Amino acid sequence: MIVTSNRGPIRKSEDGWEASIGGMSTALMPVLKDVGGVWVAMQDHDDMPIQLPYPEDNPQFTVHSVPLSQEEEDNYYYGMSNTVLWPVSHYMIQHFELKKAYINTYRSVNERFAEAVVEEYQEDDVVWIQDYHLMIAPKHVREARPDATIGHFWHIPWPAMEVFRILPWSRELLRGMLGSDLIGFHVREYVDNFLESCRVLLGAEVDENAVYWEGREVRVLVLANESKQDEAEDAGADYVGLDDYIERIENDNWLDFEAVVATPDVMSKIGRLGRILGPRGLMPNPKSGTVTMDVAETVEELKSGKIEFRVDKFGNLHTPVGKASFEPEELSENAKAFLSEVLRLRPAASKGLYLRSVTLSATMGPAIPIDPSAVRTGLR
C-alpha cells in the first residue's frame, strides 16, 4: 500500500523520529504497519532523508519525503490549500483569496507527489491519497500507471456545486480527482454535492454512487452459455447470463449497459434483439470484436475504456455518444472526447483537410450538420 498525504506520520524527536500526533496518523499508521508499504508526504524536517524506514529499530514501512521550498509551501499549502480550498469547502467564500501563484504551485507540487508515488509503486499496490491538498495527484498517477488501484479520501465537507463552481479551476480539480477508482466522503450530503459537481461542471453521467467519466466506468453485458460465464465474471463483466437477459431486453426494453459481448454459439438466440440493440450501436458484431470466444480479453478492453465505432464503405465513422436521458452537456462532452481521439489518431502522412464533415442524429432521426471548423476550434 502507498498512503499519500500532505503531512507525514512521523516527526523529529530528541532521540530520532517518533509518531506524529494527529487523527490521520493515528488512524492510518496501524494499517500501513500491518500491510507494509510506503507513506509519501511533505518533508517535515531538513534532516529527514528522502526514504526513511520506520520504526528505525524494526522497520514496518517507509516514509518517502517530498522536499518543498518555503515559497512552494507558502503557495501550495498556506495559499491554495488553506486560503482557497478550505474556505470554499466550508462556505466561507468571503475569506478565500485567488492568486495565480497558488494554483501554479499547487499543480507542480501535486505532480511531484504523484512522481514519488510512481517511483515507489509496485505491482498490485493500492494507492490511497488523502484530502484537499492533493486533488490533482490521482490524475498524474493514473497517467503514469493506468493499471493502479487508486483511492482518494476527502476529509472536509464537499460544498454545493453552486459554491464549488466559483473556483476558476473547478473542472481541472474535478478531473484530477477522477483519476481515482474510489473517492470517499464523510456523509451522504457531501457525496451528493460531489456527484452534482461532476454532472454539471464536467457533463459526466452519474448515478447515486458512481461517476462515469472517460471510460472509467463501462457497464458490460455478456451473453454466453454456462461454459463461458465464469470467465466473463472473472474478467469484470457487470451482467452475465443468457435467456433471462434476452427476455429483459425484449420484454422490458432493459438497456442498463454500454456494451454487449456474445459468443458465436448464442448469436442465433439474440438475433431477434437486433431491432432494439442495433439502432443504439449495442448489437454484438464480429467486426467490432464483440462476437468472440475470447470473452475475458474483450471484457477487459471494454472496461478499460475502449471506444467502439464502425467505418462504412465511404470512410465515415459512426459511434453513439449517449442516450436520450443524457443532459446536453453530457452529450457534448462525449462527442468532444470521440472527436478528440479521431484527430489525435490522424496519420502523420495525411495531407489536406482531415475532418471534412460532422453530423449528429438521434436513433432513426434526421442528421444535423455541424460545422467542422467550429469542432476543431472547440477542441483546442
Structure description:
The chain is of the alpha/beta class and 380 residues long. The protein has three domains: 2-212, Rossmann fold (3-Layer(aba) Sandwich), CATH 3.40.50.2000; 220-303, Ribosomal protein L1/L10, domain II (Rossmann fold); 310-378, Ribosomal protein L1/L10, rRNA-binding domain (Ribulose 1,5 Bisphosphate Carboxylase/Oxygenase), CATH 3.30.190.20. 39% of the residues lie in helices and 17% in strands. The chain contains 14 helices and 18 strands. The chain has helices at 23-35, 70-89, 100-120, 137-144, 161-164, 170-177, 188-202, 226-234, 243-252, 267-270, 274-277, 295-303, 328-344, 372-378; strands at residues 2-4, 10-13, 16-19, 38-42, 51-54, 61-66, 126-130, 149-153, 182-184, 205-206, 211-212, 220-223, 239-241, 259-262, 310-311, 317-318, 358-361, 367-370. It has a seven-stranded mixed beta sheet. Helix 2 (70-89) crosses helix 3 and helix 3 (100-120) packs across helix 4 (137-144). The model has no long low-confidence stretch (mean pLDDT 86).
